[in-house]
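TA notes. Do not distribute before section.
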Amino acid sequence: MADDITAEQWWSAMLTGKNLHVPVKQLRHAFRMLPSENRCVFCNSPFDGFSAPVIKKLGRGPSRISKKFCTKCQIVSSKFIGGTEIDLTLLFADVRGSTALAEGMNPSEFSQIISRFFAVSSKILLKSGAWVDRLVGDQIIGMFIPYYAGDNHQLAAIDAAKALLRATGHGSPDGPWIPLGVGVHCGNAFVGAVGSHDSATDITVLGDAPNTAARLSSAAAPGEIMLSDGAYEISGLTDDLEQRTLELKGKSEPMGVHVLTDLSE
């Protein structure tokens, strides 16, 4: 790592694609010469084509957090303790009634269904361009950052939420194989690495925006997507959705939301 790069500079480049500070610039140019339809936007490591298997063995395959950058860049990023603020959209998907669900099966069975939920939801979120935050108990978080998910990251998050509910059986005649409620909210948040250089670090999102998205997912019934009024309006949706006013825990003022239950593409 270059000593003259601050954590804020690194994360600003990582999140916006501007002023990329790559310690191995020669590799970046060399990787660009290898043909590939998909590659790390940070170091240019190819993710497909004839060179992909070799590149993956070098630790530069797609990251578990995002298909837009490689595992090596993720590891390097985690060494920059700190981050920066950015406008983004958050998707929180929460298993409804997980306590009752766990009570009705043995621990191994519950572990299997949660693992299936994580695998299915991670695949959908990664395909949508989101960063996938770690599985927290029975909840998964998708970070829709404009540079990775596109300018209309609000709509990308809403489409991903609908795909996630469809994939878990909501709207099907047999019902869901795992009941989920989803919250979608946009705003400014801190994204970066937390921890310390002598202990484990984690790439995560912090602030009022993720807290609000988490509260929305907790308020959503199975099969519901709770959209904050801001996310709904900015996304450009024209659907005539049910509107509610919620008293969310920890929020000083009631919050307006639109409730999406139509999961059609």
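Switch to the second chain here.
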Amino acid sequence: MTNREFFLKRAEEEFPVFLRVFKALPKDKLDYRPHARSRTAAELVWIIVLDEQTASEVLDTGKIRWQEVPPPVTLDEMMAAYEKAHAELTPRLKKVDDKTWEEKKVQLLVEGQVAFEETLGMMLWVGLFDAVHHRGQLSTYIRPMGGTVPSIYGPSGDDMGA
């Protein structure tokens, strides 16, 4: 299995886990944040959506122009945007050849400046790791928000049957 094939496998296996975490959030408490310096639950969900959307951007342009924009008002809108971005990205990733994956240089731009340059494959891994990181943050919000923490990589204290 190549690195690209492994990425595709992991991305497909993580997709339903992201949705489980999103669905576990109480929809009326998306403004929750554990500390004044922390992002709100809505902002964390939206960062994950942006990570998925920018993967298509880097395939199209060789660049990610990172720009945080406010999230939509509802969790349903955010989940729909995530599902749409994932549905559009997956077939496109399957068409990327291993040489492009391993050798094509792409850039992450923040405020118009190159934050870093890496191979396409590494940039996409960084995006997936960033999304998983933010999902972990988000999962710690669920119980204090009054929700039930779903299974992520196995049972949770709230979901023992997974």
